[in-house]
Design a protein that fits this description.
68% of the residues lie in helices and 12% in strands. It is α+β, with helices and mostly antiparallel strands and 432 residues long. The radius of gyration is 39 Å and the shape is elongated.
Length: 432
């Protein structure tokens, strides 16, 4: 038994190291800590947040077209020839007036304020709706990543239980080898029973090696989801069977909670606002500008500085068909987004119904698996007692042990399937 557990630990170390031949300590995290680490370290979530930042940047760029702008500039100019003021100017002015100085330094500042820019504000609204869609899509990615982590943790838990069941099967097989050897030595057994028992023991040790490798692979998958290249163990409490599930009520809840529906609604809103923007390009735009300037050489007014105020009206009468093409593009985007929203609604209803059905099936399978384990354990104990009394054969014991082992593995799988089904149902319902 000591050798068996040492071998198991060695296999676990190798599996945790990714099969590279070096030992690695398996890190253990609670589910809450793992979910927090997922939020902070997941590369998938980092990409989703980056896309949200990109959308926010685009929205801010669109807003700049509807806000005042302030610019400053300066210049140095050297002309080939100077030109003093003409003689017809008054003497006091002609002495300082220079039409073209040899050198001049100048500085200016300009402020432009959009007064009426309806298409620009529609563009801002569309960009903000697109940002809302990006935020909702990021939340959908987060829920999917959390659900995937929980499901992978349940798979790892099933692998862990499988390893424990296989350990018990190995112990039982080795015990049967000892009993067969003892019966052969006492003259009450036959060599065939010993060979059968040893074959079964070798088979179970092979099952243990495979189960340990699967466990290492599952724990490494958990670590990868957390953004780590190392195995992680997440201990889970037993999943509890829920009460009666109302698929229709869950579907209605999902329609209000799923971030995908929020993202689709925001996409429809953004497309509608883009259509509004295209139509508002027919409306004149009004803006006001103010500028101030100064230079070291006098201006024709005789002063070195000045200011200017202007009000500009822009009315694009024909832009080559750009606004018509943009309106057509927006109308197509609206139709596409609405069709996607309807398809998504149908898909959500189907996902919730399937998830609720899977939970019911998983609950029933778990109950059957528990009953099967009890019966198999009782049958194995009866076979062992019968073999010790010389009533049962070695094959009866091996068959009973195999059934008990398969029942234990089936129970581990049933427990994991219930946990996975509940995680899928939470995801389908939009719960975190």
């Amino acid at each position: 038994m000591i050798i068996l557990r040492a071998t198991l630990l060695a296999h676990l170390a190798l599996a945790g190291a990714g099969g590279q031949g070096s030992t690695s300590i398996i890190r253990e995290l609670s589910l809450d800590d793992a979910l927090r680490e997922l939020d902070s370290q997941s590369l998938t979530l980092a990409q989703a947040r980056a896309r949200t930042e990109e959308a926010a940047g685009i929205a801010r760029q669109a807003l700049s077209a509807a806000l005042p702008t302030l610019t400053a500039s300066g210049s140095y100019t050297r002309n080939s020839d100077p030109a003093p003021g003409p003689g017809q100017f008054p003497a006091a002015l002609a002495s300082t007036l220079v039409i073209q100085p040899l050198e001049v330094l100048s500085a200016s500042g300009a402020l432009r304020i959009p007064l009426v820019a309806p298409s620009a504000w529609a563009d801002v609204a569309a960009a903000r709706s697109a940002e809302k869609a990006a935020v909702a899509s990021s939340q959908a990615v987060r829920l999917q990543a959390r659900s995937a982590l929980v499901q992978t943790a349940w798979s790892a838990a099933a692998s862990e239980e499988t390893v424990a069941a296989t350990e018990r099967a190995v112990e039982s097989a080795e015990e049967q080898v000892r009993l067969a050897d003892r019966a052969l030595s006492a003259g009450t057994g036959v060599p065939l029973s010993v060979l059968q028992a040893r074959t079964e023991a070798v088979k179970r040790r092979s099952d243990l090696v495979r189960a340990v490798a699967d466990l290492g692979r599952a724990r490494l998958a958990v670590g990868v989801l957390l953004g780590r290249a190392e195995p992680v163990r997440i201990p889970l409490s037993a999943a509890r069977a829920p009460g009666v599930l109302d698929a229709q009520a869950l579907a209605l809840e999902a329609m209000g909670r799923r971030p995908e529906t929020l993202a689709t609604s925001a996409q429809i809103e953004a497309a509608e606002r883009q259509l509004t923007s295209a139509r508002l390009r027919l409306v004149p735009q009004l803006s006001a500008s103010a500028s101030a300037f100064a230079q070291d050489s006098p201006l024709p007014t005789g002063k070195n500085d000045g200011w200017r105020l202007t009000v500009d009206l822009t009315w694009p009468l024909y832009d080559g068909g750009f606004r018509y093409g943009r309106a057509r593009q927006a109308e197509g985007a609206i139709s596409e987004a609405r069709a996607a929203a309807e398809a998504q609604r149908v898909e959500i209803v189907q996902q919730v119904a399937d998830a609720a059905r899977d939970v019911g099936v998983a609950v029933e399978r778990l109950q059957l698996a528990e009953d099967q384990v009890k019966l198999a354990a009782e049958a194995a104990a009866t076979a062992h007692r019968g073999f010790a009394a010389g009533i049962s054969s070695s094959l009866d014991v091996l068959d009973a042990n195999d059934r008990l082992y398969q029942s234990d593995v089936g129970l581990a799988d049933a427990r994991a399937r219930l946990g996975i089904a509940l995680a899928v149902l939470d995801r389908a319902s939009g719960r975190s």
